[in-house]
Amino acid sequence: MKRVLLKLSGEALAGDKKSGFDEATCMGVARQVKQLVDDGVQVAIVTGGGNFWRGRTSGTIDRVKADQIGMLATVMNCIYVSDIFRYAGMKTEVFTPFVCGAFTTLFSKDAALDALGEGKVIFFAGGTGHPYFSTDTGAVLRAIEIEADAMLLAKAIDGIYDSDPKVNPAAKKYDEISIQEVIDKKLMAVDLTASILCLEHKMPMLVFGLNKENSIVETMSGTFTGTKVTV
Ligand code: UDP
Q: Can you give the residue ranges of every domain in the chain?
């Protein structure tokens, strides 16, 4: 794989703290991504926002406004992780689908591919730019747009199971499963909108746990122990 989109869930960025950032976790991600970049892989990153805010569970305020706050949370996440990456020796650029003044660059496919060509790790912050969507959907959309070979899905859990392993200790992890089966069985590796996009545009996914030491590098090197989602 020469070009990948790595989706980091917001919770995964928070480590054990569950909210905000865990610097050690983010440094671990940076160290691994640097290894991929040094090996010539082009890497784009989408972060979730759940470590700060989730529109759908915000309660009293209007959903559109709640989702705008959620999208801004992902901008904060990307600015933070991007700067950790710079500290680790990489060049980066953060793109958003809406104008954030001098903080980010407005997304276009051409600008994103140019940045990748310059050896930068690029970040897609702000999701799709629209309420009622998720960063899962934003991630698949951008992976398709930049013609990534696959989407790497780094989660707090180490793959896709037939039931919730926190509730059912006998839950079985899939080594490989088709996206159609993920949809039919409502396994929700990514939400339904994102799953349908993957199906329609044939975007494979590799799902794995971010907590496991070196899991991003392993995913790219063939010693992968998560779940491969085929299309
Ligand atoms: N969000 C949005 N549109 C997008 C992407 C994200 O409105 O295209 C908002 C939404 O409120 C979401 C929050 O940003 O809850 C954080 O994104 P994430 O996908 O991490 O949310 P989660 O799936 O954890 O709710």
A: 3-230
Amino acid at 229: V
For 106-115, what is each residue's pLDDT tens digit?
A: 999 999 999 9
The ipTM estimated for the assembled molecules is 0.96
112 vs 180: CA distance, rounded Å: 30
Angle subtended at Cα 222 by Cα 221 and Cα 228, rounded to the nearest 5 degrees = 120
Residue 2 CA, chain-centre distance (Å), reads: 17
Nearest to 24 by CA among 34, 33, 14: 14
pTM attached to this predicted model: 0.95
Within the chain, strands assigned E span 3-8, 42-47, 92-96, 105-106, 121-124, 150-155, 176-178, 205-209, 227-230
Fold adopted by 3-230: Carbamate kinase (3.40.1160)
Q: Is 108 annotated as a binding residue?
A: no
- How many residues are there in the chain? 231
Nearest-Å Rg of the Cα atoms of the chain is 16
Give distance in angstroms: CA of 38 to centre of ligand 1.
31
Is 10 assigned to a binding site?
yes
**Residue 84: how many other CB atoms lie within 10 Å:** 20
Give the mutation target among 51, 53, 61, 71 for probing the ligand 1 site: most ligand atoms within 8 A of CB.
71
Res 60 pLDDT > 80 = yes
